[in-house]
Amino acid sequence: MYMKPEGKKRIWAEYQKEIPDDHFFYVRSCIRQTFFAGSEQIFLKIMRDDLGKDVFEDPRHTTCTGIGYHGDVVPFETIQAVVARHFSLATEAGYRHIAISCVTSFGIYTEILETWKHFPETLERTREDLYKATGRTFDVPETISHASDIIYKFRDEIARKAKYNLVDLATGKPLKVVEHIGCHYAKMFPKHGIGGAEFPHVLIGMVESWGGNVIDYPERRHCCGFGFRQYLVQANRGYSIFASRKKFESMEPYRPDMIIANCPGCAMFMDRWQYTINEIDCITYGADGQGIPVLTYEEVAGLVLGYDPWEFGLQYHNVQSLPLLRRMGIKADPARRFLAKDGSRLPEPANLING
Amino acid sequence: MSINRSNRFGFVISPSRLIDYDTSDRKVRDYVTLREPSFKLCFACGGCTATCTAGQHTSFNLRRMNTYIRRGEIEPLREEVTRCMLCGKCLLVCPRGVNTRNVVAVAAEAISKLERNEL
Amino acid sequence: MKSTLKHVIVAGGGVAGMEAAGSLAEMGYRVTLVEKGEDPGGHLLQWHALFPDRRPADEVRSYLRKRIGHHNVSVITRTTVEKIKHHPGGTVSVNLSGGTEEKADAVIVATGFELFDARRKEEYGYGIYDNVITSAELEAMFNRGRVAKADSTVPHRIGLIHCVGSRDEKVNNNHCSKVCCVTAVKQAIEIRKMLPSCEIFCFYMDMRMYGPYYEELYRESQEIHNVNFIRGKVSEASVNINNRLVIKVEDTLAGRPLRMELDIMVLMVGMEMAEAGTRLAEASGFKRGINRFLETGDHHYGNNLSGIRGVFYAGTCTAPMNITDTISHARAAVAETVRYLDGR
Description:
heterotrimer, B: mainly alpha, 6 helices, C: 344 residues, FAD/NAD(P)-binding domain, 2 domains, 7 helices, 20 strands, 26% helix
């Protein structure tokens, strides 16, 4: 709005990183699989069917144990060995590029690779640990990318195939989108994030390629409060809500149409806390007080490419996206939301916002 | 501010610790500055606080009080300001020549007027 | 007719260069002053009023111009000194941009400083948000006689951020630039005089009021001009829906984070070794310190010495300093140069 785009472009140009073209070894996210099960599925569909890429998965890969590591339950040596095992699976399958679904994982992987780079003795120790535990050896991958980096790289191709844009069909105006980047994407190692830590570009690039307008608001950089360490204990979740609420109150005056997030935890929290804040304080945010739909970037890519939102699980968010879908001109029948493919009824969440 | 209507979640939303300069009210500061202009000279070295008699055994902290007054944060001060014993030791130390003893007295006056809506 | 006077080339026509040139000329040496800009004067050309007493910068500019008006001084502008080499036998050869080579009996390096590029502190949004300006840009507003926001409206609250690009490992400048604190206090007073309804806040880590009457100026700013000081480093700036800047700072004295809206944010940018000086140093084999300024012969009694015969240093190419100390340093460089030339 009141900004000089040349200044931002200069920063984005400085923080570019190498994202490979094809042949990815995909590692999934615990939170995303559990809460946004359709997100990873739609990512794979877009990569394979729409973009024709080779994305390989090994069902033997495990959680990266990031939650445990950040919750002080898993020691650093252990997580290095777990991650090394994933590298071993990738090496075994012949892949040199890792595509990472979760931002926490991405943070863990970059932290580990940087540690190995600056302290080679830790790499040696990890090789030993992994061999003793599993008999496996591994190559350090050539690149690691977050899955949002990859969608960012192909955003213009997606835009060319788009059936819908991030535009309000009735007025023709671009939708107002708040973008939220997970802390571990760039705050630890700014050069590993597209656009760096202060003005990250990975989601802005997507939104603008697909016709939307990004809002910069005062608390844009603020953490959503996910953490891990504090919210594992129920009594401490007030910390997390406080952080998310600060962001909501800061973005409210701009009346955003939606929030796009690249971290599964952020998406989950910003969605869930709108429900909790509604219960505790009777406040609902967003245009018409209907809540601000929070979408993962894969879900946004799926909508833009014309996939059926109920097929990739958009109905299982606390804040429903019906007003957003209507605005974009996407025909999705609310009545079919909780029906399985064979017509039987799926569990229906109570207390949906604008459901 | 959190009304916290329901406690069924097992946690409360953490209250903010932020000093929001644009929403806090500096009537007490203006009252004190008018009646004791040397208040403006304070540069928060803490010399007064170090020697303060009341500060040795209560939470009364003169340096912090001055800072809070300047920010418009009166809540923490309501009780604190009454703890000053008016001994005057602070006057001996201040390198800038602030009449610290009078600052406390005037601040106490301002706060009680604020509570009676007379400010 | 070839001059019988000994010849000294002064590389750089800022405050140090001009004073050194004038001083040498007076003492009977022929001086060539080489300046990269359109006119000599260095950064002094940009300033409006000088601390501590806010006297007009023009008075010092006039003094220096008179100095180099001496008939023994010839000035070359729009030229840089690219390389300096001392030859056995005593001559110093100097390569100028444009291709020529000059010979001299001694050279004084006075290539000065450059201001930190504020775009490198991304969190402050310089070059991205309207109304984030540097101290130099604020001084330019003083020269124009008006302090205003980018949309020409009157500001009601201005924040000055100390230590931008100094004492900051993130931008590889661990040094203190010395003069920014007193500049902030001076500028704060100047704004208060121009705009009595505008609140001013200085956000500092330490108040370095080291020079004569600097501490008194700090006192005056609080006592008479109602400038506010908050101790804490500003962590980030953003913009709200009313196009006001929103900053976050730790109010270390209160022990709590503080949030404030500002109309204009002024970044007190620090000093770095000048780029042309860096090129010259690398080409000529001059040693530089960890802070990237020129390293001198001895910190206490040899800080005009380069370690190379016939080559001397003057001014901020060796370290951040104010105008008074720059002029003194230039005179000291002249004393060393004369001692060297007379001894040959």
